[in-house]
Amino acid sequence: MAIRDTSAQDRPIVAQVNGKRRAMMLGGAVVALASIVWLAPSAWRMLAAGHSVSASRLQIASVVRGPFVRDIAAEGSVVAAVSPTLYASAAGAVTLKVHAGDAVTRDEVIAVIASPELTNKLAQEQSNADALDVDYQRARIDASKRRLELQKTLDNAVIDEKSAQTDLARNQKAFELGALPKMQVAHAQDALDKARIALEHARADMRLDKDSLDFDVRAKKLAYERQALVVRDMQRQVDDLNVRSPVNGQVGQLFIAPSATVAKDAKLLSVVDLSALEVEVKVPESFARDLAIGMSAQISGNGKQWPGTVGAISPEVVNGEVAARVRFAGAQPERLRQNQRLSVRIVLDQRDNALTVTRGSFVDEAGGRFAYVVRDGIAVRTPVRLGASSIDKVEILEGLKVGDKVVVSGTDNFNGAARVVISN
After folding, report:
1. How far apart (Å, rounded) are the C-alpha atoms in residues 412 and 345?
2. pLDDT per residue over 56-83, tens digit each?
3. Is there a single domain that holds both residue 226 and residue 135?
4. Rounded to the nearest 10 degrees, what angle do helices 182-239 and 116-176 cross at?
5. Could you list the residue range(s) of the whole structural domain that residue 384 is in?
6. Buried b (16+ CB within 10 A) or exposed e, 320-353
């Protein structure tokens, strides 16, 4: 018995086309092609740059042209232009006559030092001066007496010489008349010669003794005057035991207790002259070389502003900063206190039409020799030449133009690459 097959049941199946599926496949192909076209430039930039940095890690600024003010803005503190510190002139017990904050006037006694050693030394030196003064006065009297004696001797010698002349003339006349022998005339001549010699010696003694007496008196006088100088110096030291204020002002800081024993040259207290106040500011070393005495400044605080001028600049650098003093140009403001904080702005340079960009770390990181300019999402290392710089801007001399986008901060992430992709 033959087995029947299923050929009688078979039917050809006609394939049906699914339009939706075809549309999906076609759309996917279009999307893929568009993605390739869109991503191709980015991929090409990535391959060309070889390095990518996120934009969130960078600071980008535009190059602009306009006014450029090169200035220094800093916080300063009010200091007294005159603020002397007083020291002990000698060792001893100190009694303060004032308290911190008290108003004082010039030459007012504000402290007293008790020093028995100096007081006794002054008395001793004064006694020595008195003794030397007595010696000087005695020398003057003795010299006057000696001069009188010498003058008396000279006067007697003059009289003796005149008497001898008279005797010789009388004897010669008597000899001519035959009343006296020749020997008597010769004897009178000898007496005259002797009187003349005595007169010459008296005059010589007068001259020599006068010089000697003047020398002795002058020596006594110099000894007394030298001792008088010692006394005056000792008196000055004793007077300095009364510590006086050198200026009109207020007592500042007290360095000792109201009653204490101190050594010589110990600090006692300070006096602040509030009539002459200045503002001390710390200026970065990079700006200090451009500072000059006489530059104009603007001081502000307490909601007010005052003009000022740079009055002094320290010659040394401390911790990368230079101290400068700014003085008030006009009348000193009222109600200012020592160490009060004020803002100071010093204008170094001002230009109306300069090419500038925001100052950033790129100035120091690149040494001012190049900058990264952003073009089409790529930061390109570009040589530049920088000029003057202020607190927030830096002048561009060469290499950039208005509208250029410059990476001003974060260039340390580029590791010196020539081209860097800026990713979002």
Report:
1. 31
2. 888 888 999 988 887 888 889 988 888 8
3. yes
4. 170
5. 56-66+352-423
6. ebbbbbbbbeeeeeeebeeeeebebbbeeeeeee
